[in-house]
Design brief:
- By secondary structure, the protein is of the alpha/beta class.
- The chain has a domain at 2-79.
- Helices cover 32% and strands 20% of the residues.
- The protein has 18 helices and 22 strands.
- α9 (158-170) links the parallel β4 and β5 (175-180).
- It is elongated and about 75 Å long.
- The N and C termini lie far apart (62 Å).
- Residues 1-56 and 434-453 have low confidence and may be disordered.
- InterPro entries: F-box-like_dom_sf (IPR036047), F-box_AtFBL13-like (IPR053781), F-box_dom (IPR001810), FBL60-like (IPR055294), LRR_dom_sf (IPR032675), LRR_FXL15/At3g58940/PEG3-like (IPR055411).
- It comes from Eutrema salsugineum.
């Protein structure tokens, strides 16, 4: 017997049916079923009713499932990988043709090719995988398809990959997710078919690493595309700009570790509403001309300059800068006789342009490294007149002497969230915490409970403040279990 958590909501009933299909299709591989159950039960809420399903009576339950309409059964099968969905054809005659109607295909060679050492490198196994995909495509014929996800980490035939992609595009696919690595050699990447950029139905396109699109021409026709995700692909800036200009309905753009072939990048889109950038490389300039942008998340190294930042309708921003230890050391104690140190400091001095461009944002999150960088351009800090909610994460290895200027420049702040109350002590620490003198070295709340007055020092700047949250790790350096610290906390909030 096996256990199944079940509730009465539609989503959980569908999940229960999905697990039932797995159990029947994989009746001779109970270990696989157990792993599916273990994985599937984790997110379910406690308090759901437990039901024991015995193997006795399985046929009657199977009959009830087979009586469901094709649309519902296909919906259930869409939650499985294509390999698992294909296994259901052994259940009964009724199930044999259902795969032809499933509108979601999830082809993943890591599921098809078991992880035994060396198996995925065997020619006959790779050939078997490609034959399987060919059969699935043949079974489905010209039936409509909504989503096609293809993840190949083995050396499959690029011509056959072209055929699979062309097949789903011709059938009106709206969501295309591609990750194809033909070889570990970067010069032997899979060249994506131009047809992917000439589709009247694509609404979401995700292109992962191992795919070459540097050839991209100006003949782009994606009138319905709203979401574009690019992960670890190479791009020339002019090709990238041409792509964005051709996407008139684009609302969401995700750029992850793009291999830029130029040093000056400009993200320009009149329709874009959500922009997420993870930048692991170095650029000379980074510009944003996105007047309709609502959500912005940037995590990466600091560009030396931000010539254009047009985000006048921004609602939520998260700025997470990366700093190497060498950059941090040179920025804190530059050697005036070292041109390299001067260049590092000068590069951070233009960060104010980015913050000036997002000065109208109501909600802002800053990482510890971002606060450290802001300390180098405090004199140019803009006033955030519309900022209502500010979240700040601190770190004992990062300074926050930019804090006083930042807080003074948020006159209408209503919610302040401080995750941790520790920071690196510098000669300017007294500028950030009036409770710490330059002679009294320590790390904020770590060394003296009186430093809780620092929080009151912050609160004094905010006549509009309605809520303040403080996150402290149970065993972290800020010990609220200390009676003296707790006393000062109570005194502060009784003021």
């Amino acid at each position: 017997m096996f256990w199944l958590l079940q509730c009465n909501c539609i989503s959980c009933r569908t999940e229960s049916l999905r697990l039932s299909v797995l159990s029947f299709a994989g009746n001779h591989r109970l270990s696989t079923l157990n792993s599916h159950l273990t994985h599937s039960l984790k997110p379910l809420n406690l308090g759901l009713r437990l039901r024991v399903w015995n193997e006795v009576g399985a046929e009657s339950r199977m009959d009830r499932m087979s009586s469901l309409p094709d649309e519902l059964l296909c919906h259930i099968l869409s939650f499985l990988t294509t390999k698992e969905a294909a296994l259901t054809s052994i259940l009964a005659k009724r199930w044999r043709n259902l795969l032809a109607l499933v509108p979601y295909l999830d082809i993943d060679d890591s599921v098809f090719l078991h992880p035994e050492e060396g198996k995925r490198d065997r020619t006959e196994i790779i050939q078997s995988f490609m034959d399987f995909v060919d059969r699935v495509m043949a079974i489905q014929g010209d039936s409509p398809i909504k989503k096609f996800s293809l993840k190949c980490l083995t050396e499959v035939d690029s011509d056959r990959v072209d055929g699979w992609i062309s097949n789903v595009l011709a059938r009106g696919v709206s969501d295309l997710d591609l990750l194809v690595i033909l070889d570990t050699d970067i010069d032997d990447n899979y060249r994506l078919s131009p047809k992917c950029f000439e589709s009247s139905t694509l609404a979401k396109l995700k292109i992962g690493c191992g795919i070459h699109i540097g050839w991209l021409s100006e003949s782009i026709f994606l009138p319905m595309l709203k979401t574009l995700v690019l992960d670890s692909v190479g791009f020339y800036v002019n090709k990238f700009e041409s792509l964005l200009h051709a996407l008139h309905l684009l609302e969401e753009l995700v750029l992850v570790d793009i291999l830029w072939q130029d040093w000056d990048v400009n993200v320009s889109s009149a329709s874009l509403k959500t922009l997420t950038i993870k930048n692991g490389g170095c650029l000379d300039t980074l510009s944003f001309d996105t007047p309709s942008l609502v959500y912005f998340k940037y995590s990466g190294y600091v560009a030396p300059d931000f010539p254009v930042v047009n985000m006048k309708n921004l609602f939520d921003a998260q700025i997470i800068f990366f700093l190497t230890e060498e950059q941090l050391e040179r920025a804190r104690e530059p050697d005036n006789g070292d041109w390299f140190d001067d260049d590092v400091v000068l590069g951070y001095s233009n960060v104010w342009k980015l913050f000036h461009g997002i000065r109208n944002v109501p909600n802002l999150y800053l990482s510890p490294e971002t606060l450290e960088v802001l300390s180098l351009c405090c004199e140019s800090m803009p006033v955030f007149n519309n900022l209502k909610s500010l979240a700040i994460m601190s770190d004992k290895e990062r300074g926050w002497q930019a804090m006083p200027v930042l807080l003074r420049n948020c006159p209408h702040l209503e919610t302040l969230v401080i995750e941790g109350l520790v920071h690196h002590v510098t000669d300017k620490c007294g500028d950030a915490c009036d409770c710490i003198t330059r002679e009294d070295k320590g790390r904020s709340l770590t060394s003296c409970p009186v430093k809780m007055a620092m929080i009151k020092h912050f609160l004094d700047y905010f006549p509009s403040l309605k809520e303040m949250e403080i996150y402290v790790e149970e065993d972290g350096p800020t010990q609220l279990k200390n009676p003296e610290v707790s006393k000062h906390v109570l005194e502060m909030f009784e003021l």
